[in-house]
Amino acid sequence: MARRGRPVAEVTLTDEERATLVRWSRRAKSSQALAQRCRIVLGCAQGKSNQDVAVELGIWPQTVGKWRNRFVARRLEGLVDEPRPGAPRTIGDEQVEQVVVATLERTPADATHWSRASMAAESGLSRSTVGRIWKAFGLQPHRVATFKLSNDPQFIDKVRDVVGLYLDPPERALVLCVDEKSQIQALDRSAPVLPMMPGLPERRTHDYVQHGITTLFAAPDVATGQVITAVHALRALENDLHAWATAWNDDPKPFIWTKAADEILDRLASYLQRIPGAGH
User: Fold this and answer.
1) Which residue has the higher pLDDT, 190 or 39?
2) How far apart are CA 158 and CA 164, in angstroms?
3) Has residue 276 got a pLDDT over 70?
4) Angle between helices 127-136 and 93-105 (to 10 degrees)
5) Distances (CA, A) of 171 to 27, 75, 158, 165
6) What residues contact residue 250 under an 8 Å CB cut-off, 6+ apart?
7) Which tops the pLDDT comparison, 269 or 206?
């Protein structure tokens, strides 16, 4: 049966283009956006429809159509981001690429992550230029997020079961989710905090005095949004925690779960693609 809809541009690759696209698509640490665009073009070159490629990669068909047309019109150069309006660039693409690749694939010899100063010394560019490149590519070397990969062979089935309880709990069901919150400490700065002023942020000393710690047991009621709390040890901090819970419960907001199990598993798959050997 003939396909319906608007005709799509046919993608035909030279051997050199195919080799480049495959190489770019397999780089584990470089731009994931560029790698995905390469996978889109490779899928289109196999004669697949925009819809088929979109389903395989978990993206919108419109996104496939955009990069199909960009490649047909401008070949490999069409897969990089378009220049933005403004003054002519004084930094070449090779210099930008060197900064991005170094940020993603290496660390400085004397530190755990890059700073503007160390990258400026490495690249020969100014600190402000390094900052602009990082901002343009969404790179934040000073920030670290954590994640946990499960080796449970029943992990996928368990995710679907748990998310199913969140999205559509049985009638009269009691769903409990237990987790640990990072420690809560009663801290006070060693000097008074300087308030925020026009052109200046709030300023506080980096050192502090620790007045103690406590343990908070909290149970959010997802249906109403209220928080049920119990604290143990250190009285002043307990009072602060109780005061916070009371203020929250004066205007609670229900906790509504919106993420489907497939979205969670797709996010996990994206992590695995970036970790060599993690899928085996």
Assistant:
1) 39
2) 10
3) no
4) 80
5) 48, 56, 20, 11
6) none
7) 269
Full 3-state SS string of the chain: CCCCCCCCCCCCCCHHHHHHHHHHHCCCCCCHHHHHHHHHHHHHHCCCCHHHHHHHHCCCHHHHHHHHHHHHHHHHHHHCCCCCCCCCCCCCHHHHHHHHHHHHHCCCCCCCCCCHHHHHHHHCCCHHHHHHHHHHCCCCCCCCCCCCCCCCCCHHHHHHHHHHHHHCCCCCCCCCCCCCCCCEEEEEECCCCECCECCECCECCCCEEEEEEEEEEEEECCCCCCEEEEEECCHHHHHHHHHHHHHHHHCCCCCCCCCCHHHHHHHHHHHHHCCCCCCC
Contacts of 54 (CB under 8 A, 6+ apart): 60, 61, 63, 64
Considering the chain, what is the average pLDDT of its residues? 77
Rg (CA), the chain: 26
Cβ–Cβ under 8 Å, residues 113 and 141: yes
The gap between the terminal CA atoms of the chain, to the nearest Å, is 39
* Alpha carbon distance 49, 61 (integer Å): 9
Domain ranges of the chain: 15-79, 93-136, 146-190+208-280
Q: Burial letters for 249-270: b for 16+ Cβ neighbours within 10 Å, e otherwise? A: eeeeeeeeeeeebeeeeeebee
